[in-house]
Amino acid sequence: MLSRLIAAGLADIAEKLERGERLDLADGRRLFDSPDLLAVGWLANREREKRHGGRTFYNYNIRLEATNVCVASCLFCSFARLKPGDPGAYTMSLDQAWDKLRQRARQPLTEVHIVNGLHPDLPFDYYTELLRGFKRIRPDIHLKAFTAVEIAFFADLYGMSDERVLRELMAAGLDSLPGGGAEIFADRVRRKIAHDKCGTERYLEIHRTAHRLGVRSNVTMLYGHIETAEERVDHMLRARALQDETRGFQAFIPLAFHPDNNQMRKLPAPSAADTLRVHAVARLVCDNVPHVKAFWIATGVEVAQTSLWFGVDDLDGTVQEEKIYHMAGARTPEAMTPREIERLITTAGREPVERDTLYNVVAHAAM
Ligand code: V47
Q1: Cα–Cα 20 to 30 A to 309, which of 54, 80, 137, 320?
Q2: With a 6 A CB cut-off, is 324 part of the ligand 1 pocket?
Q3: Which secondary-structure segment (H or E) carries 314?
Q4: Is 1 a residue whose pLDDT tops 90?
Q5: Which positions ≥6 away from 121 have C-beta within 8 Å?
Q6: In angstroms, rounded to a whole number, what is the distance separating the alpha carbons of residues 315 and 118?
Q7: How high is the mean pLDDT of the chain?
Q8: 3-class state of residue 144 by DSSP
């Protein structure tokens, strides 16, 4: 491998990693520029195996998007409808939302992942009741709910501080925050693709506050649109810097841009090679974030499987009824059973481990 790393111009980066030194912006850019994808993947796999061996995590979860009404107009989004009553706009009643969990009474789910549009007219207690109702139905279910962008929106709309919003949601049953809404942290890109929602500093500040309150979270990165390699690495470095302070991020999740039915539809979707590289570079740069997750809905099932040799140790979950990506053209299935995910992992030569949201191992009597 050494001769290959030398030929790829990556020998010094390999040595830095061996010495436990951190990669910087220039190193990250070189990993993106290197023609040898396998060499980059080999380095990422080595870091992955140092942390997790062949273990590959997934969880048994469902997704809930209670409303797609959203006052923000992000260029990449195919899910949002500006106003209630617009064609395709929906807002579930609390009962409809709770039914999604009631209908699955027999499934040994451990997590509900909730993401919504920024609805201008719902009262705050719609959200607190939403959480309380899920906990009434299943007191042990983990509620990973509301992106930092939603938290910021609630704070502004209902006249509360970000911390107060978090505390009230925690009192109602919030257990952790998903990583959505990060997009790309660099201002140049964020101004263009997500100009009217919470900015980078506030996104990071809300995660900082959540971590201080004992709430874990994830961080995402939407890639494959107008961002440069340097802006990708900058994004990873900003996540890494916050993680140095708080240690509250569990997973870094690159999200592949899907171009159907949105204002950036002229752009091509990122290639499989790019997807593998982004996940690999994330593993190498975000050295302090324990897990790198391939969201298989976004990457495609086959690429997610291959990514298990490119730095990825987590495949998210069974998901079920995902809307954001399917409205943007994803051709992946809407759900996988735990058996299907386990098979995907074992046929890649990796070891499946069902986890809960906080990465405790879950052992079922029988499935
Ligand atoms: O923030 C929206 C992205 C995110 C498109 O924390 C799009 O475990 C691609 O954050 N093409 C929401 N991406 C989903 C998300 C997530 C997913 C899986 C796991 C976790 C976690 C979080 O979806 C948004 C945005 O970045 N998105 N539209 C699109 N057309």
Answers
A1: 320
A2: yes
A3: strand 314-317
A4: no
A5: 84
A6: 27
A7: 96
A8: strand
What integer pLDDT is reported at residue 364 of this predicted model?
65
* CA-nearest residue, atom 12 of ligand 1: 180
Q: How far is the CA of 102 from the centre of ligand 1 (A)?
A: 25
Atom from ligand 1 closest to the CA of residue 327: 30
Out of 255, 267, 275, mutate this one to test ligand 1's pocket (max ligand atoms within 8 Å of CB): namely 255
Per DSSP, which regions of 115-265 are E strands? Answer: 142-145, 176-177, 216-223, 249-256
- Answer yes or no: is the C-beta of 282 below 6 A from any ligand 1 atom: no
Q: Is 31 in the pocket of ligand 1 (CB under 6 A)?
A: no
3-state class percentages of the chain: helix first, strand second, coil last, to nearest 5: 45, 15, 45
Query: Domains of the chain by range and CATH?
Result: 25-354 (3.20.20.70)
> Pocket of ligand 1, candidates 275, 324, 357: which has the most ligand atoms within 8 Å of its Cβ, to mutate?
324
Ligand 1 proximity of 76 Cβ (cutoff 6 Å) = yes
Instruction: Report CA(269)–ligand 1 centroid distance (Å).
Output: 15
Quote the ligand 1 centre to 207 CA distance (angstroms). 16
Weakest mean pLDDT among 130-134, 139-143, 362-366 = 362-366
DSSP string, 5-67: HHHTT-HHHHHHHHTTPPP-HHHHHHHHH-S-HHHHHHHHHHHHHHHHTTEEEEE-EEEE--B
Record the tokens describing residue 189, joined without a space.
């890109």
Determine the Cα–Cα distance for residues 117 and 67; give it in Å rounded to an integer. 6
- Answer yes or no: is pLDDT of 366 > 70: no
221, 253 contact by CB (below 8 A): yes
b/e 85-112 (16+ beta carbons within 10 angstroms → b):
eeeebebbebeebbebbeebeeeebbbb
Structure tokens at 350: 């990796």
Dist. CA 194–CA 292, nearest whole Å: 24
pLDDT tier for residue 82 given thresholds of 50, 70 and 90: confident
User: Which residue lies with its CA nearest to atom 21 of ligand 1?
Assistant: 178
